[in-house]
Amino acid sequence: MRIRVLDDFEIVTDDGASITLPAAQRRLIATLVLAGEALSSKQLKRILWGADGKDHTSAFTSLVHKARRALPPGRLSAEGGGYQFRFEDGDVFDLREFETLVERAQRSREAKPDEAAGLYESAVALWGDPPLPDLPTGPDLPVVTVKAHRLLLVLQEAREALAEIRLAQGEHRRILPDLRSWTAADPFNEYMRQLLMLALYREGRKSEALAVYNEARRLLVEQGGEDAEPGPVLRRTRDQILADASEPPPPSVPVQDPPEITTGLPDPTRILDYLRGGKDNFEVDRQAAKALEATAPGLHELTVAHREFEDRAVGALARAGIDQYIDLGAGLPDVRNTHQVAREVVPHARVVYVDHDPMVEIHSRALLLDDPSKTAFVRADLRDAEAVLNAPELRRMIDFERPVAFLLTSAFPFLPEDATQVMNSYVDAMAPGSYLVLSAGVADGLPDRAVELITRTFSSFRLRTRAELATLCEGLEIIEPGIVDIQHWRNPLEVPIWVQRALCVVARKPGGTTPMI
After folding, report:
1. What does the alpha-carbon distance between residue 408 and residue 128 come to, in Å, rounded to a whole number?
2. With contact defined as beta carbons under 8 Å apart, do 113 and 165 qualify?
3. pLDDT value at position 258?
4. What is d(CA 464, CA 190) in angstroms, rounded to the nearest whole number?
5. What are the chain's domains?
6. In 3-state terms, what secondary structure has residue 341?
7. How far apart are CA 30 and CA 253, in angstroms?
């Protein structure tokens, strides 16, 4: 049987007969095919009818019954209160074809670029326009949304890799129609736009190449105001074209292996999510959080205060004109995140989230990257400053010749005991007038049993001291009110000090034209 989900959903039996399904049945089966696992009846009803508060049990039961009758026996099976689509040996599934072709292209690209280009072309050709047309997505449908987003990311990278090979081979005319089409479909993808500009320039169409840049700026101005500008890579390409100094395209971002999530041990990111009232955690995380709360009352209030401090700090930075942010150790998405707070003041603000946690990556890519022209995610360990600062996604988004704000709050306790070298690397990368936002839990006032439990639960977690924060800010201008408890940093409300404490500081790199906040 042949199953197609990347284009208009279709199932063709071994004898060549096409199984025609009504729209609701297509959405049901396409979702299960993509998921590759059993989904509960509750999840499927939300996918089909949304969270409208109504009971669709009768309609859902009827829908499943009709879909089962339309499919060959045993393909739609009941599994533990839900349903799963069953694949069989010999099935041809376009999603698997796509992934196999891309993997083969990646392996052969360096030694056999012609072969790799052909494989990439075959992989890209499997997709329809629009892609995944029968799949519902959205923040309330994480199982579907995360997998769909991952696939679309691989498709984007396959297209970019194909264009790079064609340009490197001097076949700019051959790839030009595709680049036009892909840029029109994804107008805020600045890297694709850069490749289109290079192809046009090498074709001798300099004015059209510059018009592609101007269109990018126009789109950004419409969204973010007159001060909005394309990123540093696109601006550099424009300058090269104006100077008639063509360069080959920079290397693409490599496709990373899909992240693996471990659920057997408590995870600090998920524990923090639970303490903030989130749902992206497991029972082992909830039990660990409850044990910590029992020895250090006020942890829940502290996590809320921590988010409120970040909001106040980012808001103040945005009002001072900072329009570039790097959120190191970003953690799981919250109700309000850095890009949302910054863009309330500076609509064109660019934000890069950095985290090495696989669950953070999955949820961030699905829920935060709704505007890839201004928001990016880098999977990297913040302790490896060189890897973070040289990540292609970050370099495309951030212009280090201009002021930038580094946020290191939730993840600061996971830096090495002597964090000076790591922090110096980040500070050295900052232009004058940039800002550093730090916060960390401290042992002051904590019972010994609480300190012991924290360090036992998280072997790499280090409670900090006021002196350590001050040392890391040497050479920077510490902003008033200085190093204080997070709930007291420019907070008009009177908030008590809890048993567990966290200190914070905002500091500015001297020079530049950005004002003191």
Report:
1. 41
2. yes
3. 46
4. 40
5. 1-160 (1.10.10.10), 170-255 (1.25.40.10), 297-508 (3.40.50.150)
6. helix
7. 29
| Nearest-angstrom CA–CA distance, 487 and 2 | 59
Structure tokens at 445: 């006032």
- Contact in structure between 436 and 408 (CB atoms under 8 Å): yes
Q: In terms of DSSP bridges, do strands 350-355 and 375-379 run parallel, antiparallel, or are they unpaired?
A: parallel
Check: pTM over 0.70? Answer yes or no: no
CB atoms under 10 Å from CB of 125, counted, come to 11
Pairing of strands 477-478, 501-508: antiparallel
Is the separation of the CB atoms in 164 and 191 below 8 Å?
no
Between CA 296 and CA 307 the distance in angstroms is 19
The mean pLDDT value for 327-348 works out to 86
> CA nearest 213: which of 233, 232, 192, 230?
230
Residue 365: the pLDDT is: 67
Residues 234, 193 contacting (CB under 8 angstroms): yes
Per-residue pLDDT tens digits for 217-244: 998 888 766 777 888 888 888 998 998 8
What's the DSSP call for residue 465? -
SS3 content of the chain, % helix, strand, coil (to 5): 50, 10, 40
How distant, in Å, are the alpha carbons of 11, 18, 28, 59, 134 from that of 73?
Answer: 14, 16, 17, 21, 23
Number of H helices, E strands in the chain: 20, 15
Cα–Cα distance for residue pair 224/374, rounded to 1 Å: 10
* pLDDT tens string 403-437: 999 999 877 766 767 788 889 999 999 999 999 99
- Taking a C-beta distance cutoff of 8 angstroms, is the pair 284, 264 a contact? yes
Give the integer Cα–Cα distance in Å for 501 and 494: 16
What is the CB neighbour count within 10 angstroms for residue 16? 7
Calpha distance 88→84 (Å, rounded): 13
Contact partners, residue 423, CB within 8 Å, separation at least 6: 408, 415, 472
Contact yes or no for 327/399 (Cβ under 8 A):
no
CB 285, CB 270: distance < 8 Å: yes
* Contact of 285 with 457, CB cutoff 8 Å: no
Q: Quote the CA–CA distance of 246 and 237 in Å, as a whole number.
A: 8
Question: CA 150, 154, 160: angle at the middle one, nearest 5?
Answer: 145
Whether the CB-CB separation of 266 and 273 falls below 8 Å is answered with no
Can you tell me the distance from the alpha carbon of 406 to that of 387, in angstroms, rounded to the nearest whole number? 15
Can you tell me which residue has the tokens 């010994």?
A: 448
Residue-wise pLDDT tens digits, 9-60: 899 998 899 998 998 899 899 989 988 888 889 888 888 887 777 889 999 9
Q: What is the 3-state secondary structure (H, E, C) of 84-122?
A: EECCCCCCEEHHHHHHHHHHHHHHHCCCCHHHHHHHHHH
